[in-house]
Amino acid sequence: MKIADIDLGDYPVVLAPMEDVTDQAFRLLCKEFGASMTYSEFVSADALIRNVNRSLEKIRVDEAERPVAIQIYGRDVESMVQAAKIVEAEAHPDILDINFGCPVKKVAGKGAGSGMLKNIPLMLEITRAVVEAVDIPVTVKTRLGWDCDDLKTPNRLSEERALIVELAERLQDCGIQALTLHGRTRSQMYQGVSDWTLIGEVKNNPYMKIPIIGNGDITTPEETKAAFDKYGVDAVMIGRATFGQPWLFKDVRTFLDKGEHDTEMTLDWKFEVLKRQVQKSVEYSLREDNALKERKRTELGGIIHVRRHLANSPLFKGIPDFKQTRIKILRAETQTELFELLKEAKSRIEDFQKTQFSV
Ligand SMILES: Cc1cc2nc3c(=O)[nH]c(=O)nc-3n(C[C@H](O)[C@H](O)[C@H](O)COP(=O)(O)O)c2cc1C
Prior knowledge:
- This protein is of the alpha/beta class.
- It has helices spanning 24-32, 45-49, 53-58, 77-91, 105-108, 120-133, 163-173, 196-203, 221-231, 248-258, 267-286, 299-311, 323-331, 335-358; strands at residues 2-3, 6-7, 13-15, 37-44, 68-73, 95-100, 138-145, 179-185, 212-215, 235-238.
- Strands 3-4-5-6-7-8-9-10 form an 8-stranded parallel beta barrel, surrounded by 7 helices.
- The protein is globular.
- The model has no long low-confidence stretch (mean pLDDT 92).
């Protein structure tokens, strides 16, 4: 599958953009385990224009992680165009992605992110202007609509079709090179389940020529394969299921390519990956970078970022009385402390597994 001339291979599986999660250290790990493409956290167009250091950190791209998309959000044409140009000039990503899907109040309430689903003419104007402003491919990520009225007929755009089917056509007409759909409306936030039927409807609309990337609630290799088989999407995007297990991509890739699960990933191996994730996070927090001149570079910065990943790892699900260890992980302040806690967590899992096998 190709986005413009970027070849993502067969059945691409991509890492979703996630604020405070998909920093460069995490993206590189996911890439190493087989993610076909990764996305940065979203970056505010206004913040970028103001030259905020944290935003510059977010748009930094390492050659090893290509292809990579940088995602921006904003609420007016001028700032989005300016931000798009900054991203292209400063970071040289492979793709510039526009966020029209964020549901949180501080973004959508101001008309940005999924707030644009209430102002389709502005959404299209921004998209057209950004496509025009940069040379790199522009893509869009959005939701199925603002609320459930957008899923039914009649709606604001068409008498017959769900809003997203027609909106996808119009976004394609603006010149975007791929469209990602999260199968929820804004008002659903993260409640309920993703509606993949509508994603499939967009994909199977004969007018659509650009790749459609399906997103929402994919947690396993089996679900990933079913999304391709049942809905015909060109790529699958995975978000929350990667928390604390960047190796998910390795299992998904093996399953898609060979029809079986990856058997190389032992418990020891997974804990080594988590330790590497800690190391990388600290390393990235400490590195020299002109853009970060004014920011304090500390080990703690990297630890604060990574400890939530670890605490949420599915490895710890179902381990009895794990709560205290999880709290300790969330309070750890140094790499040494986190490594000790990982050691403790691993022996807790091994003990638990022994009791399971002896039953
Ligand atoms: C912590 C968190 C942060 C997110 N940040 C972003 C973001 O910056 N940009 C974006 O387009 N979507 C963001 N999302 C939405 C995800 O990209 C994705 O669409 C959503 O989680 C559904 O996919 P999933 O069920 O695979 O997690 C975020 C989601 C989570 C949970």
